[in-house]
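To the team - flavin mononucleotide complex, inputs and output below.
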Amino acid sequence: MTTRLTQALGVRHPIVLAGMAGGPTTPELVAAVSDAGGLGTFGLTGMSLDAVREAVGRACALTSAPVAINVLVAPATPPDPSAPDPRAVLAPLRAELGMPEAPSAPPPAATPQELVAAGLEAGARVVSVGLGDPGVVAHLARGAGAPLMAMASSVEDAVRAVDSGADVIVAQGSEAGGHRSTFHVPEDGVVPLVGTFALVPQVVAALDVPVVAAGAVMNGRGLAAALALGADGVQMGTRFLVATESGAPEGYRRRVRTARDTDTVVTRAVSGRPARGIRNRLITTLEAAGPPALGYPAQAGATAGVRAAAAAADDPEMIALWAGQAAGLSGSGQSAREIIEEVVAEAEAVIRGLARGL
Ligand SMILES: Cc1cc2nc3c(=O)[nH]c(=O)nc-3n(C[C@H](O)[C@H](O)[C@H](O)COP(=O)(O)O)c2cc1C
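Output:
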């Protein structure tokens, strides 16, 4: 399956593993996707520079195929002094998890530029950006000769991303798991929710660069549909959460595999920016208290301790269960290579079947 995307990235299959910050994209998962002919991507946001060097270096040692790095470049949003502090709201959950009353302040986070520079030095060959203007790292990608991918959830942002230097656009439909990839979040938190089926052909019509469809692409039917809409490939997050090499805890995988179509919500409660995840006690507790008090990314920092302790205890009720609306189609027990091979074979069969007039 040769498309403009496989040519631009130097990969065999038009399938991109979404960079997923927070642990799912292990070196083993990233390397396995790239080695199987897709593009494995690390979600670097929140990692220390030493951890980036080690993880990217390890993935590059495991495969000779290109490996990508992803950073979130969203600007901070202001606090809402009228809303209750999430640390107080989460106190009962902290007590249940046996955590200390006053969580210690997190170490200062590395900037997107520092993360990208470290990832490129460690051997990454593609740079990918979400939640904002890719221009802030374009010079680093150019300097390294690395294609620059940017995720957008509206035609307007997609056009701006190309103006800022993006070589490939990931068109993120509203079905997608994780954060909504918008340049801007208005004060009321209402961001565009254009579905993959509506967004992809309109982005394709507006641009000349390769377009990758993201949001509820779970199998070969999804890949074939994306190609039929004019996309040059797909980016999949939720499906790879349950791959054997993923870093997602078992309780998280179980909730993903068993999710119904109506189980996810878009919420600002966890990080201060809108993101789609499976509704659980963390979300309902925070939402019941009102709008996010701290804005992005401070709200994410304030909820991070509970989420980390819950992940360590494998308690899916108190971690952020980011997942897309088609999570229930993820299957289980497959390696990344098996997922890629199955998706490609199924897409080819679907396309052949359609051509025969089935
Ligand atoms: C657990 C999880 C974490 C994510 N983290 C990131 C991230 O760090 N950077 C990013 O650009 N996109 C991130 N995304 C969004 C993906 O890039 C992509 O838009 C989404 O996974 C596509 O929809 P799907 O989950 O239905 O496949 C994340 C998605 C999930 C499910």
